[in-house]
Amino acid sequence: MKKGLLILLTFHFSLLVSLAQQGDAQIRQKISQAAAAMKTMQCDFVQTKHLKMLSEEMVSKGRMCYQQSQCLRWEYTSPYDYTLIINHDKVLLKNRQRQDVIDVNQNRFFKEIASIMMNSVVGNCLNDDKSFKSTVTARGGEWVATLTPQRRDMKQMFREIILHFSQREAMVTQVELIEKNGDRTTIELKNVKTNETISPDMFTVR
To answer: Are 35 and 122 in contact (CB under 8 A)?
Structure first.
């Protein structure tokens, strides 16, 4: 009797695991298909920084533009003006006082940051098995992907990266960056437009 019950429970558990793995694979496939179909993306964003040492949150706002083939413009407009542009292997950092151009191939830190930003906005981090261990779950009307860094340099920066996807569009709606010390940055994407023409000037690095 006990042996039969154990066999039944084992079978039931195996079935649940199998169904979960199938669901996970289907979600990943839908996200990958949506990312591949997204040639451009434009949106507003609200970034909220939660610091363990402070009770007040730091909120900033801005505009993001993405173009498939490694181009990203991340522009803060409030409470300060600051722009980061990624164009393949070049990064431009610009504010009102100065601007700097960085070759990411010669700066490992910026290469990692550029990779995380570029891949997070469309969900491609899910396909980077060498950099992240990831799990995907359905929660309400969204999919939530939790990414745990695997490489040593990534572990020094982040404990987890959590991506929230709309189930309807299979697109990222929110990114959470949990740092090693427990500080958390939440980025919410709003007014998203996809596959509309973006001027090449938006990604100029010089």
So the answer is: yes
Q: How many CB atoms lie within 10 A of CB 186?
A: 18
For 7, residues 6+ apart whose C-beta sits below 8 A from its C-beta are none
Q: Which two tokens stand for residue 4?
A: 């039969």
Beta strand spans in 51-157 (E): 58-67, 71-78, 82-87, 90-94, 99-103, 132-139, 142-149
Element (H, E) at 42: strand 40-50
Q: What distance in Å separates the CA atoms of residue 77 and residue 74, rounded to the nearest whole number?
A: 10
Please, what sign has the CA dihedral across residues 164, 166, 171, 174?
A: negative
The candidate with the shortest Cα–Cα distance to 71, out of 55, 53, 92, 52, is: 92
Tokens of residue 3, six digits: 């042996």
User: What is each CA distance from 182 to 49, 54, 117, in whole angstroms?
Assistant: 11, 12, 20
Partnered with residue 134 across adjacent β-strands are: 147
Q: Is-contact 142 162, C-beta < 8 A?
A: no
Half-sphere exposure of 40 (CA within 13 A, CB side): 12
Residue 103 is encoded by which pair of tokens? Answer: 């070759």
Q: 42 is written with which tokens?
A: 């434009």
What tens digit of pLDDT does each residue of 74-118 get? 999 999 999 999 998 898 999 888 999 988 888 777 777 777 777
Q: What is the pTM of this model?
A: 0.81
Residue 9 has what pLDDT?
34
